[in-house]
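in:
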């Protein structure tokens, strides 16, 4: 791919993330994306089949980026309660450092029907450190055997709080990690 194509593709992706952040998903159109990216609408369709394809590919890329480093805090040698605390803090840090991308993930997570099958499969098949933590939780007799969806929802609490309030205190972060741990203890 030529450099100008890569630049245009990146501008399109950035426009999607920015527009979802400022205008929301329901107001997102390919015309708005093209205008924000400084490209013609036809340029979008050179690289993506449709809006679902575009959202899905951006989702996969952002998900991968936001999970970089997560594997360094998940370790079966550490107590689960510490790992939960560190995952909560990791989520908070990512959200505060990359608010537009974290918001995009939060919005897409809440609107999974906007994603194609490949993006959904990508989410489920991606070797995530969280799956390692979830498996530790499932195999520990001190914890309830709850579904992935329940665990995902619990670990999404910090992102939801930041999305609602714009910030999070150290006390709230600690409270969230304690709450998650207590919610799944037997």
């Amino acid at each position: 791919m030529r450099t100008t194509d890569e630049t245009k593709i990146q501008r399109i992706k950035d426009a999607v993330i920015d527009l979802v952040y400022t205008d929301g998903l329901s107001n997102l159109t390919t015309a708005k994306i093209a205008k924000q990216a400084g490209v013609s609408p036809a340029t979008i369709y050179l690289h993506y089949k449709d809006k679902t394809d575009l959202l899905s590919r951006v989702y996969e890329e952002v998900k991968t980026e936001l999970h970089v480093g997560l594997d360094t805090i998940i370790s079966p040698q550490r107590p689960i309660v510490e790992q939960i605390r560190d995952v909560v803090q990791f989520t908070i840090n990512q959200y505060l450092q990359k608010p537009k991308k974290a918001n995009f993930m939060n919005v897409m997570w809440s609107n999974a029907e906007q994603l194609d099958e490949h993006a959904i499969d990508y989410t489920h098949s991606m070797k995530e450190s969280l799956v390692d933590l979830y498996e530790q939780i499932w195999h520990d007799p001190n914890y309830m055997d709850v579904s992935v969806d329940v665990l995902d929802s619990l670990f999404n609490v910090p992102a939801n709080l930041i999305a609602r309030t714009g910030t999070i205190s150290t006390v709230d972060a600690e409270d969230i990690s304690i709450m998650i741990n207590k919610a799944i203890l037997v």
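note: The chain has two domains: 3-47, 69-184.
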